[in-house]
């Protein structure tokens, strides 16, 4: 079994070198889909919602993977040649002030409009009501992930690391969205 895993990892690393953007997009889509399946199971869904699963895979593939790919490339250019804890702290702060708020709002809007099929007015009011709590929670979770990512991960693995924890975050976001939908039902 370990030979199969080693070979799969070797092929993944090769694809990461040959087609980094495509590989990261596929990885993000896969992890987004897995996070949705886990969230559906945790929330007690009796029959898995395939449409929801596919829409979240699409989100990971079309947005999350490419966004984090370019985010980490840009961060590497902004802080080119700079290392140390102060640089890591600046990267984390920049990411949390710019990327985190944008990603959370976008996810909430996408989830409400596309995944749940709610009207813009309902989505807007939900974002206004829930966004502050979501963002404050994000600022408790993501700086730790960002610190570890920038301090210890090589550039080629930062998106994978980020998307793995993004999948964990998506489970939280899915369950939060699901609990609100259940309360209203």
From TrEMBL:
Top-level taxonomic group: Eukaryota
One Gene Ontology cellular component: cytoplasm
Mode of membrane association: Multi-pass membrane protein
Residue ranges crossing the lipid bilayer per the database entry: 53-71, 92-113, 155-175
Keyword Transmembrane helix on entry: yes
Compartment(s): Membrane
Keywords: Membrane, Transmembrane, Transmembrane helix
Keyword Iron: no
A Pfam family this chain is assigned to: Mpv17_PMP22
PANTHER family, sorted: OS08G0566900 PROTEIN (PTHR11266:SF46), PEROXISOMAL MEMBRANE PROTEIN 2, PXMP2 MPV17 (PTHR11266)
Family classification: Belongs to the peroxisomal membrane protein PXMP2/4 family.
Protein name per the record: Peroxisomal membrane protein PMP22
Originating species: Papaver somniferum
């Amino acid at each position: 079994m370990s030979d199969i895993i080693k070979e799969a990892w070797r092929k993944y690393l090769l694809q990461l070198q040959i087609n980094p953007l495509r590989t990261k997009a596929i990885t993000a889509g896969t992890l987004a889909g897995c996070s949705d399946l886990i969230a559906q199971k945790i929330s007690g869904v009796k029959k898995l919602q395939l449409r929801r699963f596919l829409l979240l895979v699409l989100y990971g593939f079309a947005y999350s993977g490419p966004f984090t790919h370019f985010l980490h490339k840009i961060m590497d250019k902004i802080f080119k040649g700079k290392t140390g804890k102060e640089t890591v702290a600046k990267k984390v702060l920049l990411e949390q002030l710019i990327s985190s708020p944008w990603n959370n709002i976008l996810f909430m809007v996408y989830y409400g409009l596309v995944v749940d099929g709610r009207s813009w007015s309902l989505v807007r009011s939900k974002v206004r009501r829930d966004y502050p709590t979501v963002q404050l929670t994000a600022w408790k979770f993501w700086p730790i992930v960002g610190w570890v990512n920038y301090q210890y991960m090589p550039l080629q693995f930062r998106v994978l690391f980020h998307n793995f924890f993004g999948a964990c975050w998506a489970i939280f976001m899915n369950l939060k969205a699901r609990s609100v939908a259940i309360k209203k039902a």
